[in-house]
Design goal:
Shape: globular
Low-confidence stretches: none
Mean pLDDT: 94
Largest sheet: 8 strands, mixed
Radius of gyration: 26 Å
Number of helices: 20
Helix content: 40-55%
Amino acid sequence: MSVIATRINTAGASYHENYRQMLELVAKLENHLTESRFQGGEKHIAKARAQQKLLARERIDLLLDPDSPFLELMPLIGLKQGGFGAGGTVVAGIGLVCGRLCMVSANVGTNKGGAIDFFTLQKAVRVGQIAMENGLPMINLVESAGANLPEQAKIFVQGGINFKEITRRSKQGIPSIAVVFGNSTAGGAYIPGMSDYIIMVKERAKVFLAGPPLVKMATNEVVDDETLGGADMHSKISGVSDYLAANEFEAIQIAREIVQHLKPPATHFTPPAHIAPPRYHPDELLGIASANIKKPFDAREVIARLTDGSEFSEFKPDYGTTLVTGFAHIHGYPVGILANNGVLFSESSNKGAHFIQLCNRNNTPLIYLQNITGFMVGKKYEQEGIIKHGAKLINAVSNSSVPAITIMMGASYGAGNYGMSGRAYDPRFLFSWPNHKIAVMGPEQLAGVMEMVQREAVAKMGGSIDEEQARQMREYMMKEVEGQSNAFYATAQGWDDGIIDPRQTRNVLGFCLAVVNNVPINSDNRYGVFRM
């Protein structure tokens, strides 16, 4: 493969100014991530300590292999949205347990009793989807008061998805292991109840459909919680529990032993032991990627800092130049890369569709590096058929059956989001950089369109527009769109799997590629009708 020769002047003033601005965004990210690690107030943590309980993140640390990476997922969902805080009441991510890639989800019992709010539920559903798609055993570290009752109307119906998906994964041979450390009440009782393996901690685990107060209300029966749903009872009488652990440490050790005895994964590809790093330092990405997304940057400079040896075999380099496509390796894994270098024209759309087909023929995972303002508009381009050419790209993206990983490294506007495998197109993973912006269109464009529509409506009625009012409305619309299109708002809604420091992109991609190669990759090479 050819080595990408960088053209970046790392001594230039514009590079350093951009680096400074991106560093500020990364610092903002780190501050929010620190906030997301909140595990409850001092009183609740002290109570847990007095009961000899570990905190959620401590349980994860003990479960994972020493020095295992941990790819935390959706740590900022719910950020500043009025729920239980950034990340909700669940810590979730992928790590190694006895050398095996596993999805781990831990209730934060010291924050709101581990109750499930709307955003925590959205996170749990997404985590289950990732486990299913990539054949990852799921280990649930359970301590939850169940649904947050004031939000029941928002979470009850969709909450059933988690129970359904446990059984569907089991049907596919993807096991779930539940380790119950405390309360698992009402619907939450079905998390362990439907798992393949259940471990309960003696004198701590309490699993019941209805606790003593509700039983008293429903049947007038008076019963204590240990008799009703304690670990001893479930291990010796009901049979709900498979293993009775003396303490949390033993429970986690049993979970690790279970993983040791699971059927090995049907790994698609194992990378070689020796891998050449990129020729350029990843730190330079902060000076390359534009903090101001109106400022373009060359996607090849990003690719050069992600691929092994900075090597890239570019496909159709002189055709449809606003979309860069080609083959490379990242941490030894073969990939096909599609990266934006400007607006999508008919030529770049056709090129992308062609390239996606080639990768499906070769069972090659796809990496989308998204920085796109949309498809080109105007009379000339409509007459040339931009709609049908753009539809080819979206068709290819929609029906591609090799794993896709999307990195939002800049703008994501309009149908460009769709043509570059946005959230609605089910990439296996989707991560954002902190400079990312996402919306139907840019703030100025949206406010301008709304103003033109308003002016036309007033003119048809024979009136005249109040210019000062129009100006205020334009500024208001721009502010609203700006506030609802930045990376932190998007991740709070669950539109990505997390915001990452651009300098960590290669390692995040490498880990994600290990995950998607955990199962066989076999494309069916079937597509909808391509409009010619």
